[in-house]
Give the backbone structure.
Amino acid sequence: MSLESAFNTVIDEGTAIAALVSERHYHMRAPAGNPTFPYLVWEVITHETHKHLSQTTDFATATIQVSCVASTYAGAIALRAAVYEDIQDFTASSGTIWTIRNISGSNTQPNPQAGEPVGPCVVTEDYEVWYRRAIPGQ
């Protein structure tokens, strides 16, 4: 199973995410037009296979960036918590080795009092994932 398909499984089968966004999750690009909130957008932004001098190992590291978009800041924070919860549930139930470490995050919250337009609130998190992958040919 590739990292993309594994993460898609997290999103498709995760109960916490499904409760908030149903099928409003997108790989690599936000929906066009006026999307229904909340939704999330995700992408694998880095991927590295771990190697030793003599051979390729069966471990890899990747960074997955997830943007949680909602009409309110509290909604975006709740979606971020759901993503993390479902990643943890997937790790526990799938038998795969995923070590999740939140390495960075950013928040966008409109401030109408400062003259900013009221619009979507975005919470973006980068997750570093260490996982065991299948070695080709074995």
Observations:
- The two ends are 14 Å apart (CA to CA).
- The first helix runs from residue 3 to 13.
- The mean pLDDT is 77.
